[in-house]
Amino acid sequence: MKIQVRQEDLREVASIASRFISTKPQIPVLGNVLLESSKNKLTVSSTNLEMFVRMDIGAKTERDGSITVPARLFLEIVSNLKPGNLNLSLDKENLIIKSEGFSSRLAGINASEFPKVSVGKDAKFIRLSKKSLLESIVSVIFASSFDETRPVLTGVLFYKKEKKLNLVATDGYRLSLSSVGEFDFPVEKIIVPKSILNEIVRFADADEYFEFGYDGSENMVVFKLRDAIFFSRIIDGEYPDFEKIIPQEFKTKVFLDKEDMIRGLKLASVFAKESSNVVRILIDSTSGKARFLAENQLSGSQESIFDANVEGDDLEIGFNYKFLLDFVESVKGERVKMSFNNSSSPAEFRDISNKNYLHIIMPVKI
Question: CA angle at residue 325 from 319 to 278, to 5 degrees?
Answer without folding.
Answer: 25
